[in-house]
Amino acid sequence: MNAAVSPALSRPLEFLSAPECSVKVYDSFCDLEPIRPAWNALLDRYRMATTFSTWEWLSAWSRHLGATRRPLVLGLFDDCRNLAGLACFSIGEEAYCGRRIRVLRMLGDGTCDSDNLDFPAAPGYEDILARSVLHHLRSHASQWDLCAWNTLPHGSPVVTSLLREAARLRWACSETTTVSSAIPLPRTWEQYLSMLPGEERKNLPRYARRLNSRYATRVYKCADLESIDRSLDALFRLHQGRWESIGEPGSFSLRERQDFYRDLGRALLERGWLELWVLELDGNISAVQFAFRYADRVFQLQEGYDHTRPSDRLGYVLRGEVLKALIQEGVRVYDFLGGEDPYKKRWATQPGSYRNLRLALRWSKGGILLQAAKQAHDGKEWLRRNLPGGAWDVLRQMNRMRRQVLVSHIAS
Q1: C-beta of residue 32 within 8 angstroms of C-beta of residue 83
Q2: Are residues 168 and 314 in the same domain?
Q3: How does pLDDT run across 109-131, given as a tens digit for each residue?
């Protein structure tokens, strides 16, 4: 299907009141090219827009990391043929509760690269987009089994409408949360320093001065393609060196992810969104931070530094210099995205969270598995609360032994 209009939704949606709307269904990014300007215009109108909802991010992810999944993008158009909402998904086969099923994810999810995945909608079209999504999914239930929608931002109006409508239609549904954190940046560097814990307030300028006394230091943001390629090569090398030194694979062991970052970096630079920062010591790149900006918010995604110089605190010093520059430029939020890494707390972060939803038609295969998983989780939580501590530990140990035996049996 090439930029096709779904047969079930080719006419104005009969279940909606004025204004009349229609939904187009796209199954490749090539087919979406004609609405790229309208996509940008929609994000300009959506107050919660982030880089993760942009054409640049999702098209690069789809090319390099989403090859095993089929895109499914729903475009909501108003009565004047203006793009009023987007729902970007991908479909792939996955294991769930011991069964292989077709899982409908947010486009960009599934590889631990994307956060803040959302449903951008023009003001006044949030409920219409939510009902359109569920109407389409119910009308095409043979194409999917379970919706697994992760890292949805709290406050998303379409997500709120989706949950309300799914409850009305009696879909099977469960929700969990994952932790995120961000720094609300003040207007001056001095104000930010006053927000830090006492020890960090002393350490940040002290480590910067010490580094300057030991080396010829240079901190800069990449502003051209040549510096991007050199800096990304250093990022991959430094990041992998640190993680491989402790026996972990690292984020850039896959060539596909390296290609994703190169492609994405060029696209973000063209839009003026790239925040790729470098720390050089005596002319050699020793630390790199890959981030990007949307409006007055910067999202920090990956970093690498020379782990063989722990006393120099290279990543620490670079982040401090980056924060100082961003504050001067009027950035209001430095977002660490998801995860509970302890080091984030020393930077005066405020905790946040994402919503993770699982939805399915109640008596479908996915719905039955979802309800079974929920009952198993609820039963485990009941045991955790009500069993004596010693009995709970014994039960956990028995489960670990059972899994080990099962793995050994499968391996043999």
Answers
A1: no
A2: no
A3: 999 999 999 999 999 999 999 99
Residue 388 lies in a domain: no
Closest among 126, 20, 130 to 11, alpha carbons compared: 20
SS3 content of the chain, % helix, strand, coil (to 5): 45, 25, 25
Q: Are 45 and 122 in contact (CB under 8 A)?
A: yes
Burial of 282 (0-12, 13-18, 19+ CB in 10 A): exposed
Same domain? For 309 and 200 the reply is yes
The count of structural domains within the chain is 2
Three-class DSSP category at 154: coil
pLDDT band for position 19 (cuts 50, 70, 90): low
Q: 405 pLDDT band (50/70/90 cuts)?
A: very low
**Residue 28 and residue 53 share a domain:** yes
Question: 19 lies in which domain range?
Answer: 7-180+354-362
Write the CA distances from 158 to 53, 119, 372, 408, integer angstroms: 14, 6, 27, 46
In the block, tokens 């800096």 appear at: 231
Beta-sheet strands, E only, within 112-227: 146-153, 172-184, 217-221
User: Which tokens in the block code for residue 161?
Assistant: 């409408």
Cα distances from 18 to residues 12, 124, 351, 361, in angstroms, run 10, 11, 40, 28
**Do residues 27 and 81 both lie within one domain?**
yes
Unique residue bearing structure tokens 């640190």? 242
Residue 394 pLDDT grade (very low, low, confident, very high; cuts 50, 70, 90): low
CA distance 29 to 55: 9
For tokens 């486009």, the residue is 107
Percentage above 70 pLDDT, the chain: 86
**Together in a domain, 98 and 201:** no
- Do 230 and 174 belong to one domain? no
Encoded amino acid at 278, one letter: V
Q: What global pTM score does this model have?
A: 0.86
Query: Residue 206: inside a domain, yes or no?
Result: yes
**Averaged pLDDT of the chain:** 90
CB atoms within 10 A of CB 318: 23
Classify strands 297-305 and 333-338 as parallel, antiparallel or unpaired.
parallel
User: Distance between CA 268 and CA 266 in Å, rounded?
Assistant: 6
Q: What is the mean pLDDT of residues 24-48?
A: 95
